[in-house]
Amino acid sequence: MSSSRSVMETFFRNFEHNSNSGAIGPLISQFANVFMVGGLQGAQVVQATAFALAVPKRKKIFDDLGCQSTELVSLHETELNGQYMMVETQWRMTFASADQAAEEIQADSTFIVYTSGEEPKIVMYLSHGDVLATLANRRVKT
């Protein structure tokens, strides 16, 4: 990432902040009203209203597992056309608890962002792995 922030870097730094702070409203506002989520179990269409209900539950799961922070490590932007950007991101999630040493997990994901509106909006989120499974597998081995 360069020293002068691109629109996408600023957008994802805000995403990082909103994710870490638990600011549900600002986080949800970064997504389109309807967006697609893809992962290891397939793809689904998600309504922002349903997502808003799921975010606190997801945050609680991660908090209970000792998630201390999620940090944007890198991003790579590819303009798809004048209205959409593909943004490949790499995140570092740090977990710590009283009975486990701190550990970092890398989480890669790709976003398709609509850029022609007043503010950029995520229209597709593709997770490259399963952070919860990775964390469970690591902790079983220790």
Set down the secondary structure blueprint.
Layout: H1 7-21, H2 24-28, E1 31-39, E2 42-47, H3 48-64, E3 67-79, E4 84-97, E5 100-114, E6 121-127, H4 131-141
Parallel strand pairs: 1-6
Antiparallel strand pairs: 1-2, 3-4, 4-5, 5-6
Can you summarize this structure?
The protein is of the alpha+beta class. It has helices at 7-21, 24-28, 48-64, 131-141; strands spanning 31-39, 42-47, 67-79, 84-97, 100-114, 121-127. A six-stranded mixed sheet has the order 2-1-6-5-4-3.
Describe, in plain words, how this protein is organized in 3D.
The structure is a single chain. By secondary structure, the chain is α+β, with helices and mostly antiparallel strands. It has a single domain (7-141), classed as Nuclear Transport Factor 2, Chain: A (Roll), CATH 3.10.450.50. The protein has four helices and six strands. The chain has helices at residues 7-21, 24-28, 48-64, 131-141, and strands at residues 31-39, 42-47, 67-79, 84-97, 100-114, 121-127. A six-stranded mixed β-sheet has the order 2-1-6-5-4-3. A hairpin with a 2-residue loop joins β4 and β5. It is globular and about 50 Å long. The N and C termini lie far apart (34 Å). The mean pLDDT is 87.
CATH topology: Nuclear Transport Factor 2, Chain: A
Strand order of the largest sheet: 2-1-6-5-4-3
Low-confidence stretches: none
Gyration radius, rounded: 15 Å
- Class inferred from helices and paired strands: alpha+beta
Relative strand content: over 45%
Q: What is the CATH class name?
A: Alpha Beta
Number of helices: 4
Question: What about the largest sheet?
Answer: 6 strands, mixed
Order of helices and strands: HHEEHEEEEH
**Beta-strand segment tally:** 6
